[in-house]
Amino acid sequence: MQATQTAHGAAIIVNEQNRQFHLTNGRISYIIKADEQGTLLSLYFGKAVPDREDFGYLIELAHRPTSTCRIDGDLHYSLEHLRQEYPEYGTGDYRTPAIAVCQPNGSDMVDLTYDGYHVSQGKPKLEGLPATYVDNEDDAATLSIDLVDRLIGLSVTLNYTVFADKPAVARSVVIGNNGADALSVERAMSLSLDLPDSDYDMTEFTGAWSRERHPHTQHLHYGTQQIESLRNASGHFANPVAAFARPGASEDHGEVIGLAFEYSGNFDLHAEVDTYDVTRLQLGINERGFAWHLEPGETFQTPEALIAYSDEGYDGMSRAFHRLVLDNIVRGAWKRRERPILINNWEATYFDFDEDKLVDIARTAKQAGVELFVLDDGWFGARNNDTAGLGDWTPNPARLPQGLAGLSKRINDLGLKFGLWFEPEMVNKDSDLYRAHPDWAVHTPGRHMNHGRNEFLLNFANKDVVDNIYGQMSRLLDEANIAYIKWDMNRFVSEGYDVTRGAEHQGEAYHRYILGVYDLLERLLQRFPDLIIEGCASGGGRFDMGMLYYTPQIWCSDDTDAIERLKIQYGTSYFYPLSAMGAHVSVVPNHQANRITPIETRANVAMFGTFGYELDLNTLSEEEFGKVRSQIEFFKRYREIIHTGDFHRLVSPDGNEQAAWMVVSRDRKTAIVGDYRILLTPNSRYMRLHLRGLDENAQYRVSCTGASSIDGAAFTGAELMRIGMVSSDGSYGEMGDSEPLGKASDFSSRLFVLTAE
Ligand code: DGJ
User: Fold this and answer.
1) Which residues, listed in sequence order, are joined to residue 22 by a DSSP beta bridge?
2) Strand 140-149 relative to strand 214-219, pairing
3) Fewer CB within 10 A of the end CB, N or C, for the chain?
4) Judging by beta carbons within 10 Å of its beta carbon (0-12, 13-18, 19+), is residue 686 exposed, middle or buried?
5) In this predicted model, what pLDDT tens digit does every residue of 558-594 receive, in sequence order?
């Protein structure tokens, strides 16, 4: 037995004789074994168990009639009934394969067997792709298992990284052609895992523009339940994450397995339940539209998938992913760093602005305490509406007579940082770029080009295109003092094709496009390491772990209505931390929902995010402006906790009556609770919030931003977590009665600050 153990507790225990691998860190165990036939089997993933020389008893062979069997004369060994780590189709397993490779003779079956392993400390990079990383070699250990199909010279290396301090494993795969003929990889999952039963509730996060990432849960059933994207963006419609929970699991109890994909293009995440109740989980690039041509000697690297286990309910799963994002995905200058409070002019002006109007908005915002002014769409080329200009990244002199250098200087002189909107991947037909390079727009020769919002994708699979956009953007970043970029993307792919490559490479076009996007992001960050890039795609249409590697915050949704945002941010929080969620206060009636909500509630929701304003503060009354000032002051005081603390969901907004959530500082000395009324129930039930994550022995003094019977009182953490914090609305007298505590109303809200004494 050989164990590689990092100083911080990530261990890979290898039993060479039994070809058994046990990744553990005291919190989880992931056990894999190559059997005598060389098949790589999934033995266990879940809460940590002590190591054992041989877990082979978990391989349950049985004679099951009608099975296709592997060994001559043996009726027990069938791939159909084995729980595997990287299954193939064509050798007797009739479930969905992890891999398919087309060969010169037309066959796409592969037959993989174990061929060795390698263990290393730390976490290797994935060339050209986002991937988790560790600051210190001792924070993770990585196991690489080699599989081979000798007939066609195919090698498959499965990489597993176990993190020292997180109940999570990262997986990715490298597929190599060591044979004499070209091969075409037609399917290459990043993760495949067979679980021994199917008693799970699957929660997915579906939606559409303006209502992204609403959780939906259903019990697993026989057959395949899948979420996917074919838009070449993760999309508003399904997010590349899912939770698999034991029935009855709650926020703080029960077992939950979470999957997340660090990739921003087409994906396939599914659970397939066979008639023996085995569940096969798979996550990877969607096979539709994908085929990777491999010449002899070439390799293909899949993106990375993350799997986490919690025995502390959904909350435990969320904490694992939040910490992965904060510690192992977000990099560079903005890692675990408080984000600036911004004002964005989009909803304030849309396309109707000039330099003076922008400066007026910025000046007042500065007086309120805002730190960053962001100029949104419309500043460049002939962009007076959304039919023209994309691709021409030069300031429009009619709007900005002194260019970006002049505007950014005026903004900087006010004491604000300056940020700028781009939509780097798109082009309008009415643009100089398109007129000069019509072939750069994604199209299939001879086919009609469908548009989305009058725009077309640039072919980011073509390096010349990426170089051009990099040149245009970096020139502007050199010329003006730009601290922040909003990176928008407002349409999905159609007529996907790469005119720069031959027929055998067309299945690469979608993935190469995403690699081009990552390349541009990486090059900009290398050159301008202090830049904050905020991702955006018609709101939250590309909110994924892949983008977070480059863009530490992502605009959650174009829907800025506080009540809709409760649902969107609540759903988003299952996998993504508050520091990732772009959230702004906007005007009422709200532009998307036409709803009128108090300015307090708009801020109390947006504060659980990166926080900013998206309105012209000059239009507010003096009283409202005063409130904005206090909101900003409040946020500055607690921003560090909000952006780096532990978040807990308390009450789901689904009930349409109340929603609540909280964030606790890592030292558990301070907590902020957001308590929201949605539709008020007159004379309502008593309400208690069972807080989480506090120090049970500490005494917390409560201070409330609104009316509350417990304002100023102190309670132990134990009381607040077990008995609950009273959050009832006070008394409901007859009409005309005076109401000392003030009345809650539809859409009202309060923040409670708890400070340990
Ligand atoms: C879509 C984004 O989600 C909005 O915030 C805004 O930037 C517009 N695009 C601008 O066209």
Assistant:
1) 13, 31
2) unpaired
3) C
4) exposed
5) 999 999 999 999 999 999 999 999 999 999 999 999 9
Give, in order, the Cα–Cα distances in Å from 688 to each of 250, 432, 691.
Answer: 17, 60, 9
Segment 450-470, tens digit of pLDDT: 999 999 999 999 999 999 999
Residue 740's pLDDT band, with cuts at 50, 70 and 90, is very low
Instruction: Name the residue of 211, 212, 376, 533 whose CB sits within 8 Å of the most ligand 1 atoms, as the mutation to test its pocket.
Output: 376
- The structure tokens listed for 285 are 């690039």
Expressed in angstroms and rounded, the spacing between residue 488 Cα and the centre of ligand 1 is 7
DSSP-assigned beta bridge partners for residue 375: 420
| CB neighbours of residue 296 within 10 Å | 13
Looking at the domain that runs over 87-329, which CATH code has it been given? 2.70.98.60
- Domain coordinates in residue numbering, the chain: 87-329, 650-756
> Which atom of ligand 1 approaches the CA of 486 most closely?
7
pLDDT for residue 150 is more than 70: yes
The CA distance from 268 to 510, in Å, is: 14
Q: Is 488 in the pocket of ligand 1 (CB under 6 A)?
A: yes
Query: Dihedral sign, CA of 694, 695, 697, 701?
Result: negative
AA identity, residue 466: V
| Binding-site annotation, residues | 209, 376-377, 453, 486-490, 536, 558
Over residues 65-94, the mean pLDDT reads 97
32-41 burial, b for 16+ CB within 10 Å, e for fewer? bbbbeeebbb
Rg of the chain over all Cα atoms, to the nearest angstrom? 27
C-alpha closest to that of 729 among 704, 700, 693: 704
**Strand ranges (DSSP E) for 150-230?**
154-163, 168-177, 183-195, 201-206, 214-219, 223-229
**Average pLDDT in the 167-187 region?**
98
Residue 732 has pLDDT above 80, yes or no: no
Number of Cβ atoms within 10 Å of the Cβ of 630: 14
d(CA 539, CA 556): 6
Q: CA–CA separation, 214 vs 206, rounded Å?
A: 5
Q: Which helix (H) or strand (E) holds 285?
A: strand 279-285
> Is 646 a known active-site residue?
no
Give residue 733's pLDDT.
47
Residue in 382, 474, 397 with CA at minimum distance from that of residue 428: 382
**Residue 388 C-alpha to ligand 1 middle, in angstroms?**
15
Share of the chain above pLDDT 70, in %: 98
pTM comes to 0.97
Give the three-state DSSP class for 520: helix
| pLDDT at residue 729 greater than cutoff 80 | no
Top CATH class of 650-756 equals mainly beta
Q: Is 558 a catalytic residue?
A: yes
Q: Of the residues 544, 558, 561, 675, which is catalytic? A: 558
